[in-house]
Amino acid sequence: MSKRIRKAVFPVAGLGTRFLPATKAVPKEMMTVVDRPALQYVVDEAKAAGIEHFIFVTGRGKEVIENHFDMAFELESTLAARNKKEALELLKAERPGAGTTSFTRQQEPLGLGHAVWCARDIVGDEPFAVLLPDMLMKHHTPCLKSMVEAYATTGGNILSLEECDPSMTHQYGVVATGKTISEDVFEVTGMVEKPKPSEAPSNLFISGRYILQPKIFELLANQEKGAGGEIQLTDSMLRLAKEDPFYGVRFRGTTYDTGTKLGFLQANVAYALDRKDIHADIAGELSAIIAKG
Ligand code: UTP
Predict the structure, then answer these.
(1) pLDDT per residue as tens digits for the range 106-137
(2) Which residue lies with its CA nearest to atom 3 of ligand 1?
(3) How many domains does the chain have?
(4) 12 lines ligand 1 (CB under 6 A)
(5) Are 28 and 74 in contact (CB under 8 A)?
(6) Is the pLDDT of residue 49 over 80?
């Protein structure tokens, strides 16, 4: 039987250059979507998938992330003294329990593969999840939950997959698929980084959630720099695929890349419209803004 997925790695050490100057002093993962940091949504997704330990690979200037997931003792005691029960309950519900978070520093932003490798000692010898915190994946069934469920049947390694317009494959890591395991679960037989549309094996791309076997750490340890001069996770996954199967789970929801200006604004609108408490106000205000041009 496959080992349970208990730990998740959140690589949050990137520079966020596509969202400057906002990310000069504020980590992009802490940019607010409606009323919580983008990273909080992704941690909630991991919790909903049964993750018990949250590992953050951070860097300089990202201390605010550690503070966000800690108990704010003065704030909580002030809220308690003022009988602000609702706010207090909200903070308590969203805070991971004592001893369930770990923080390590990447030191240099050498790429996603390197960031994941930095978590090796904290993950240890067990399969684990990786969630890219700037990708908000919105669906009634959390993406990682579907992947954990598929993993219970398949074992191996699992990637979240999404369909792109076939003319856009050059922007993504695209997979070749083999046998269909169930409606949205496929064997992955190949991965190509940013193929031209004419050379792409499909229009299914890897979209920001992974379940990986710990063997990946050995491969990452001696991984050469790849595209963009960075240590790429995909390069080590390709090597891992030679000895351990990969499967893909098709995500049927909507993904927002909050690391880009457009994706960030789209996420704010979509998540705000999804909130019962503010839906009507937001919908009305948006219509008014559009009408004014
Ligand atoms: P991105 O490539 O989207 O993040 O990596 P980035 O490098 O911060 O973005 P730009 O291109 O400069 O705007 C996806 C995730 O991996 C993390 C990022 O923080 C982001 O959450 N990452 C990336 C690291 O932790 N370390 C790295 O060396 C690179």
Answers:
(1) 999 999 999 999 999 999 999 999 999 999 99
(2) 259
(3) 1
(4) yes
(5) no
(6) yes
Q: Which residues constitute the domain of residue 80? A: 7-259
Q: DSSP state, 133? A: T
Of 268, 291, 264, give the one whose Cα is nearest residue 23: 264
Q: Give the predicted TM-score (pTM) of the model.
A: 0.95
Ligand 1 midpoint to CA 56 (Å): 13
Q: Residue whose CA is closest, atom 7 of ligand 1?
A: 14
Q: Token pair 């969202």 is at which residue?
A: 19
291 within domain boundaries: no
- CATH code, 157: 3.90.550.10
Query: Is 280 a domain residue?
Result: no
Residues above pLDDT 90, as percent of the chain: 88
131 pocket-lining for ligand 1 (C-beta < 6 Å): no
Residue 251 lies in a domain: yes
Answer for the pair 249, 236: CB distance below 8 angstroms, yes or no: no
pLDDT at 161 over 70: yes
Q: Is the CB of 16 under 6 A from ligand 1?
A: yes
Do the domain assignments include residue 54? yes
Which H helix or E strand runs over 211? strand 204-212
